[in-house]
Amino acid sequence: MAGRAPQRANARRVGGVGEPSARAGLPSGLHIRERAPSGGWGGYRGPVVVFVHGGLDRGASFGRTALRLTELALVTYDRRGYQGSRETGAAPLPVHVEDLVAIAGAYANPAPGDQGLGSQGPGAVPVVAVGHSVGATLALWAGVVAPHRFAALGAYEPSMPWLGFHPAAQPTRAPEVPDGPPGADAAREAERFFRRMVGDGAWDRLGEQERTSRRADGPALLADLHGIRGAAPFDVTALTVPTAAAAGGPSSRSHHRQTVAWLGEHVPAVHVAEVAEAGHGAHLSHPDAFAALARRAVALAKPSAWQPTPPT
Fold first, then answer.
1. What pLDDT digit, counting tens, does each position of 233-265 carry?
2. Which structural domains are found in the chain, ordered by start?
């Protein structure tokens, strides 16, 4: 999850999170934005980087990272139940995976003449999904179920408590997620989650409108948290898509770092790095490092598939 979103002015700048997308094949009802690379769509041969946000977050939180990736085409979106996609309602994680696969498909196989991408022909555009926290989990999951849709993946501290590293997974600890389906306690859980992940001071500094907005994302948050409880929902060791995974340094929580280390040891497709100076919210606190993770993921895609325009 993340703290306060970047200022809206950033989203309107050339390097920000772009304009609303109307591409064919996108999931209905989702708030999706796309941003052309600095040289425009014409002649651009990919890749398209799709950012996937975590719990109690939104696509706009990648704005600071996007400002550092002007040479790349980017897509951000609010997952079901969150922010601009709130009217779609909270959804179980498999539905989020289906959404990500559909988004990747819409950009990998654009309609002919679609803003310059279609001129390359169907399937010519490599898609790289880069996720944070639960969003990273979804990126890995999508890579397992639809490897043909992704040229590479990026994963920053994926939430995978079933591996046994999270304190709540230990037999002596009570689970942090309330029992039962998301319900009346969703708003209270959203506030509690924010305070735990970002801090009481950060919550206290939010305006009342932003607090209300965060609380309204509570049902989607609880759906996320319930989705990662219990047995593994997918076999990550089956992942074959080249993946750049990263964890924060000492300021990050040990179970996040242990999860990334485990992936590096048990999944041959995963290449591990550390963002030594960052904690869990690296896409906000250390956007240069998070942008570097995205570039590492792009570098893992087949180099013959794209020819990026270097930043000026």
1. 999 999 999 999 999 999 899 999 999 999 999
2. 8-305 (3.40.50.1820)
Q: Which residues pair with 270 in a beta bridge?
A: 243
Give residue-wise pLDDT tens across range 31-67: 999 999 888 887 777 799 999 999 999 999 999 999 9
Q: What pTM was computed for the model?
A: 0.87
